């Protein structure tokens, strides 16, 4: 099968590019090695849509972060994903920190970020009364919003699919050939795809994918970060960061769109790109960071810990690496998409679109393009009247499966049969929050597995937790 564009990688960068290219008369496919989109760094993310005060002026981050962040309110309305306005505080504890706040204010002005102001100690404590008494002041960015990054990636991909883009899951790229006619052939474990252009959005594996095409222009390592998920108990309303260091924004307290809170994240470079394990030292560091912001923070509100890796292109000034290959025409790199990658992703998609056009891709508008996506109903957000109407139409909407998050069977069934349907326990969790509550799936996981088994027509022993080969059940003990 011949394509105009093959996108490699189904994180928020790849799905955002797929969503953008769906507007044009192109034959496009996205290849993802995992069982779902948002499989790696995208799901291991705090979800802060940074408005753009942090990137150093003149960098690609500074160019793409502010316009990308400004697109989110419109995209939320079109694609039906949630956003939560919170604002961001960058908290100063010393005179040196206050100088850093002034520097960030200058960055915001140069980068075109609006509604950024400096708060003194009194203003800061009036806004967030529980913050440390040692805080001297802060930068307040009023336009910051929160998203669930995996919800955005799913929305991007579903809308792209509804507009004709294809998706290949469980398609791990093994080999790439460049033919004399300037086309590529992309080989996976069981298929091959001929294409005019490749967009490499493979995250921490972007340099590995590039090497398959004979490209050795950069090296990627992972910046490992631990995160903690907290119950819905913190007395704050604003995303809170300390003043940033040279490579990280620091350990933050983060309200989420679903009412939970996060502490995130640590930052340690790792050569092992597959290492997403937690470590005790990292969790202790998170707890200390939380206490620095909120002295009364109680670690007993932590309900889960996890870790992720952000892709960092080495010797690239801690910046994004987005360009056509210097040596192989038609191969576009979208690499090193670390923070603020989530915030920048809509603008990254447009930037990649323009790179493709400059490389010779003919972009003709699609006359029947539909920018809107209808999400599955979030039962817990509906009014009683709306809930009753769903239950009268289908009693499955009245059978609560996840008590912590009030997720009914009908919502899980809808998630399984949506355009980009859930196929795993974790896929159901990302679409419905079944299993994300206080008990962390202690009561609902087996019920979710039963529903997946029934709706997919497979034995319960074949239901995957997440990755291929990761069945939850081995077999029956009796019978």
UniProtKB/TrEMBL annotation:
Q: What is this protein called?
A: FAD/NAD(P)-binding oxidoreductase
Superkingdom of the source species: Bacteria
Please give one Pfam family short name: DAO
Q: Where is the FAD dependent oxidoreductase domain?
A: 4-355
Domain BFD-like [2Fe-2S]-binding: residue ranges: 400-453
**CDD domains according to UniProt:** GlpA-like_Fer2_BFD-like
């Amino acid at each position: 099968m011949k394509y105009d564009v093959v996108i490699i990688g189904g994180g928020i960068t790849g799905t955002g590019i797929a969503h953008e290219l769906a507007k044009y008369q192109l034959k496009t496919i996205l290849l993802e090695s995992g069982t779902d989109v948002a499989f790696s760094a995208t799901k291991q993310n705090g979800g802060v849509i940074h408005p753009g005060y942090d990137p150093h002026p003149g960098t690609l981050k500074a160019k793409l972060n502010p316009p990308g962040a400004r697109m989110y309110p419109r995209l939320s309305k079109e694609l039906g994903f949630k956003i939560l306005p919170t604002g961001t505080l960058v908290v100063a504890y010393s005179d040196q920190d206050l100088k850093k706040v002034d520097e960030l204010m200058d960055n915001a002005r140069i980068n075109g970020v609006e509604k950024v102001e400096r708060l003194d100690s009194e203003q800061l404590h009036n806004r967030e009364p529980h913050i440390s008494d040692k805080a001297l002041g802060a930068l307040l960015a009023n336009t910051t919003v929160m998203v669930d990054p995996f919800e955005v990636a799913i929305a991007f991909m579903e809308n792209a699919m509804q507009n004709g883009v294809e998706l290949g899951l469980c398609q791990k790229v093994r080999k790439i050939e460049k033919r004399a006619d300037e086309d590529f052939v992309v080989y996976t474990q069981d298929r091959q795809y001929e294409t005019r252009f490749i967009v490499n959005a493979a995250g921490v594996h972007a340099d590995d994918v590039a090497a398959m095409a004979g490209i050795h222009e950069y090296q990627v390592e992972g910046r490992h970060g631990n995160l903690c998920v907290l119950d819905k108990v913190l007395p704050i309303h604003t995303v809170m960061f300390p003043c940033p260091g040279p490579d990280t924004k620091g350990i933050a307290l983060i309200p989420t769109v679903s009412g939970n809170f996060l502490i995130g994240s640590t930052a340690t470079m790792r050569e092992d790109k597959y290492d997403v394990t937690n470590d005790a030292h990292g969790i202790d560091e998170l707890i200390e960071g939380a206490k620095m912001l909120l002295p009364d923070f109680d670690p007993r509100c932590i309900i889960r810990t996890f870790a992720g890796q952000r892709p960092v292109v080495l010797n690239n000034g801690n910046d994004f690496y987005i360009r056509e290959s210097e040596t192989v025409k038609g191969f576009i790199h979208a690499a090193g998409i670390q923070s603020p990658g989530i915030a920048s992703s809509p603008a990254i998609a447009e930037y990649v679109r323009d790179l493709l056009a400059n490389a010779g891709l003919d972009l003709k508008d699609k006359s029947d393009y539909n920018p809107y996506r209808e999400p599955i109903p979030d039962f817990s957000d509906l009014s009683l009247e709306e809930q009753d109407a769903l239950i009268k139409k289908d009693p499955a909407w009245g059978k609560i499966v996840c008590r912590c998050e009030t997720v009914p069977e009908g919502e899980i069934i809808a998630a399984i049969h949506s355009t980009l349907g859930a196929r795993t326990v974790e896929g159901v969790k990302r679409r419905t929050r079944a299993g994300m509550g206080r008990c962390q799936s202690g009561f609902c996981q087996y019920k979710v597995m039963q529903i997946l088994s029934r709706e997919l027509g497979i034995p319960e022993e074949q239901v995957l937790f997440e990755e291929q080969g990761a069945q939850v059940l081995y077999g029956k003990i009796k019978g």
